[in-house]
Request: fold
Amino acid sequence: MKKLLIIGNWKLNNNKKIILDFCKKLNSYLSTINYDHHLKISIAPPILHLETFNLILQQLHNNHISLTAQNIDVNILGSFTGETSISMLQEIENIKYVIVGHSERRIHHNETKELIAKKFKLVKSFKLIPILCIGETKEEKNANKAQKICKEQIDTIIQLVGYQAFDKAIIAYEPIWAIGSNQSASTNYIQYMHQFIRHYISRYDINISKKLIIQYGGSVNKKNALEILSVKDVNGVLIGNSSLDCDQFIDIIKCTK
Ligand code: PEP
Reply:
């Protein structure tokens, strides 16, 4: 059975009250199913809410749900007003993953490939798992440059971290044109891109490529989750909008059965 990692990225949404209800509902659902180790569930709330989320999970004696940070600063400490560091996040018990290079950070916060590579390296050095988001714009897709763009995004990481960069790391393939559009990529296209990514990593290390978790992200919802999760080289999904409501999120988890 292939391993599946389902992550809800809440971005700048939801509040403390919702977290409590969400955790209770999700936790009680997960405790009713025969939860096995091929399935991992994580939520990326806004950074401010990670601690609250963690406390609630502890109170619920949860051991099914982990936490993901949406971003970190590239500095560990110092005069960087408004930032959050990896060492601060590491103190929160249930945090396991850190998203780096989400297209919204690349676009709205001008994050370069080089900065993203530094963040990726930092996350690994703190023994958390980086989730590298890669993907092309509509224009790049139409110009047949999707693979070239993803290759460049991966190359910058390998140049800084070395050929073993993707050992204990995750790639989320998220075509920018599919994010928040209500129109996911087709399953054929998803397999075409995921196969390319896995094959590209195998040129550096075949064992790492075989174990690599490659998530798909971009308008995943309860209607398309089953077919997307069934795609050969898909090992999970990174979900934005459809993860905000617990019932919808649970419906997507049901598709992993
Ligand atoms: C995302 O932003 O990572 C994402 C996949 O969003 P959505 O599911 O809303 O397309």
Observations:
- Residues 82 and 236 are 32 Å apart (CA to CA).
- Residues 9, 174, 179-180, 217-220, 238-242 surround phosphoenolpyruvate (CB under 6 Å).
- The two ends are 10 Å apart (CA to CA).
